Amino acid sequence: MFVSLDPERDTPRVLKDYLSYFNRQLIGLTGSQDAIRQVSSRYRVRYQKHPLPNGSYSLDHSANLFIIDQHGQLFSVVPYGLPPEHVQRVVRSLLDNNMQSVQSPKDASR
């Protein structure tokens, strides 16, 4: 899932075009400035709009990868720039935790 921090520029059409460069299963989300503020606060994403001399603006933001579990809870934050092997270890850890928390009906009756 990709969450835009810039609803002024990142319209649904712009997001669709941008995401076409990535995996087809990636979903792009945008919303009101207030909704984006709430989500960014929840996950401690920092962003700041900077006006440019030409009247446009740039948007600086953190670029971490947020790993969310099957309950919608934050499992891990992977800082930008870490190698893919690190991400792979984090995802494997999440999957291992999920498998340990799932009991078969036979196991649950013991």
Automatic annotation (TrEMBL):
Gene3D superfamilies: Glutaredoxin (3.40.30.10). PANTHER family: ELECTRON TRANSPORT PROTIN SCO1/SENC FAMILY MEMBER, LINALOOL DEHYDRATASE_ISOMERASE DOMAIN-CONTAINING PROTEIN. Belongs to the SCO1/2 family. Cu cation binds at residue 61. One of its GO terms (molecular function) is metal ion binding. It comes from Sedimenticola selenatireducens. This is SCO family protein. InterPro entries: SCO1/SenC (IPR003782), Thioredoxin-like_sf (IPR036249). Keywords: Copper, Metal-binding.
